[in-house]
Fold this sequence. Notes:
Elements: E1 2-8, E2 11-17, E3 20-23, E4 26-34, E5 39-48, E6 51-59, E7 67-68, E8 74-77, E9 89-97, E10 99-100, E11 106-116, E12 119-120, E13 130-131, E14 134-144, E15 150-157, E16 165-171, E17 175-180, E18 185-192
Antiparallel strand pairs: 1-2, 3-6, 4-5, 5-9, 6-8, 7-8, 9-11, 10-11, 11-14, 12-13, 14-15, 15-18, 16-17
Amino acid sequence: STTVFVPxxxxxxxxxxxxxxxxxxGLEVEMVWQATSNLKITAGANFDDSELDDFxxxxxxxxxxxxxxxxxxxxxxxxxxxxxxxxxxxxxxGMSYDVNLGSAGLLVPGAFIFHTDDYKxxxxxxxxAKQDAYTTVDLRVTWMSESGDxxxxxxxxxxxxxxxxxxxxxxxxxxxxxxxxxxxxxxVRVGYNF
Length: 194
């Protein structure tokens, strides 16, 4: 399906409409490895070979590509193109290590790395909808009391402060809006098991 924008009463309404068909092929691989009694490693990879088949999308607000229909709207033939949010590959790697502190509890530092190939956030290949490949790194350290009743965690998400698109939306008057992933965020969590 695709989104179409219909003028109505001085505003524009977004509606979902059939866009055509696509063929989705790919491979996903996941691994969990308890390398030692203390070291745990997780990894994953996703390879995507999706392609739009007979797929058209109408857009009247941008003059970038496409062909004009008799009604004056711009029609994009997207057959053979990759669908939005379908990078050729993504990979991830996670590691954690248990440090036994004896009567002081357990300390578990960990890291998670995610990398994605470039992708687009719209089926139509607008310049503002293209996202280059990027990598994010999340870090954390968790402490648990010996009894398991108390815990605390310090974390940093997106430690490298990568800026990446998660969505773009086209509106009337040749306007486009973009949403981005969270910037670097950090904090502390505390917990108690009743």
